[in-house]
Write a structure and sequence with these properties.
alpha/beta; five-stranded antiparallel sheet
């Protein structure tokens, strides 16, 4: 069974390893050069390819169609995408003799689009997961091949949940591979009307709005906690990155619940929120970029 694989990040590393362990012949890997301006805290597909002597390329999005002759010559049974960041042209998807399959970090049809783990936490979800689905020109819209769910703890941050999702992705792939190796692709309809689509997030989206509820602010902090850019607020003329908060008390009686924002009592830092509830700020530090 032959495959061409588009991959990046921990999901890319782990799923590529699973393909190799299952005896899939990977003729080419398309990955990304790391962005020098990004905090690289995850595994390297490029390094794995070098270690395993797998042919790889790192094209820009505008260069992908130039790969079509090379991919066609490899005659892959499958084209896989594991957390690859560019949209793969439809002209490449049809190069797969059996199917083109993508691994997405949510329980589709919920949280289609970018940054699904971060958006799920931001919206207070208590579960998410990984979905293997058929790729179409419309993002995350094809039939569902398999899914695996994980829980989201009420204090877990995006990195912790992403680690769970990364393992769920391997589970999904491992469960699907026996049928895929036989040329059979299990399919379940992806009911888009029952789901949601979200775009990418910018560092500026991490600004804390103290008029929001304590739960909303706590979820924002968890969703963008470092190594992501972090939630931020202004305090005494400085921009502070809020890395960890808690909704659990006790909270001092001296807090002025009618004045949203940062308050310091007995050298402990608290945030008073728009619903007149408080959060404890357990970790914060001056921003290096603001």
């Amino acid at each position: 069974m032959r495959a061409v694989v588009f991959a990046y990040h921990d999901v890319g590393v782990n799923c590529l390893k699973e393909l190799l362990a299952s005896g899939v012949e990977v003729g080419l890997v398309i990955t990304h050069q790391d962005d020098p301006d990004e905090n690289i805290w995850f595994g390297s597909v490029l390094a794995l390819c070098q270690e395993r002597h797998i042919p790889y390329v790192t094209p820009e999005a505008s260069e992908l169609k130039k790969l079509i002759p090379q991919i066609t010559a490899l005659a892959p049974d499958y084209v896989f995408s594991f957390y690859y960041r560019y949209m793969i042209p439809a002209d490449i998807l049809v190069c797969a003799k059996i199917a083109a399959l993508n691994m997405h970090g949510s329980l589709l049809p919920k949280y289609r689009g970018r940054a699904p783990v971060n958006w799920a936490i931001l919206h207070g979800e208590t579960r998410t997961g990984a979905t293997l689905h058929v790729m179409e020109s419309k993002p995350d819209a094809g039939d569902i091949v398999g899914q695996s769910a994980v829980t989201i703890g009420h204090d877990e941050n995006a990195t912790e949940v992403f680690s769970k999702v990364s393992q769920a992705a391997v589970t999904v792939l491992k469960q699907a591979l026996p049928e895929l190796m036989q040329g059979q692709v299990p399919r379940k309809h992806n009911h888009l009307s029952q789901g949601s689509y979200f775009g990418g997030r910018k560092p500026s989206d991490g600004q804390i709005l103290w008029a929001q509820t304590a739960k909303q602010i706590h979820d924002l902090v968890r969703a963008v906690a470092p190594p992501y850019p972090g939630a931020f607020t202004d305090w005494q003329g400085r921009t502070m990155i809020v890395a960890k908060t808690s909704l659990e008390g006790p909270f001092p009686a001296e807090l002025d619940l009618g004045t949203p924002g940062i308050q310091v009592v007995d050298n402990q830092v608290f945030g008073v929120c728009g619903d007149q509830r408080s959060i404890a700020i357990l970790e914060w530090s001056p921003s290096k970029t603001h």
